[in-house]
């Protein structure tokens, strides 16, 4: 449903993918995926400047890792989601701790429908 908030910005699919990836990571890697767990989604779409999207989790055994896979290592299934999110966003970061939870957040550049049309034309 996040894409509805971004209607006309040209970043509808990107916003949806970012939130989907961050929420999907929260479930297997934090207490958010355990019985009674939850995660929260934060969105701030100002009239000017980049949008803010964040996913808050309940913490767990470690911290989110944003490192890219090393070229000499064998490719593995998974582990590319945060890399894709980082490529789409202006900023990718996290705050918090394993004890109290994390918010993994991005700043996403957006354009309104008029700007997107003018840039394409």
Q: Which terms would index this structure?
A:
single chain, 121 residues, alpha+beta, Heat Shock Protein 90, four-stranded antiparallel sheet, 4 helices, 4 strands, 21% strand, globular
Count every helix, treating DSSP H or I runs of 4 or more residues as helices.
Answer: 4
Provide the number of structural domains. 1
Largest β sheet strand count, sense and barrel closure: 4 strands, antiparallel
**The level-1 CATH class:** Alpha Beta
Q: Classify the secondary structure makeup into a structural class.
A: alpha+beta
Radius of gyration over C-alpha positions, nearest whole angstrom: 16 Å
CATH topology, by name, is: Heat Shock Protein 90
- Trace the largest sheet across and list its strands: 1-2-4-3
Question: Using DSSP, what is the number of strands?
Answer: 4
Low-confidence stretches: none
Shape estimate = globular
CATH homologous superfamily caption: Histidine kinase-like ATPase, C-terminal domain
Q: CA-to-CA gap between the ends?
A: 29 Å
Strand share of the residues? 15-25%
Helix content: 25-40%
* Order of helical and strand elements: HHEEHEEH
Mean pLDDT: 85
CATH architecture group name: 2-Layer Sandwich
What can you see in these coordinates?
- This protein is α+β, with helices and mostly antiparallel strands and 121 residues long.
- It has one domain: Histidine kinase-like ATPase, C-terminal domain (Heat Shock Protein 90), CATH 3.30.565.
- Helices cover 31% and strands 21% of the residues.
- It contains four helices and four strands; from the N terminus they run H-H-E-E-H-E-E-H.
- It has a four-stranded antiparallel β-sheet with strand order 1-2-4-3.
- A hairpin with a 6-residue loop joins strand 1 and strand 2.
- Helix 2 (12-29) packs antiparallel against helix 3.
- The longest helix has 18 residues, at 12-29.
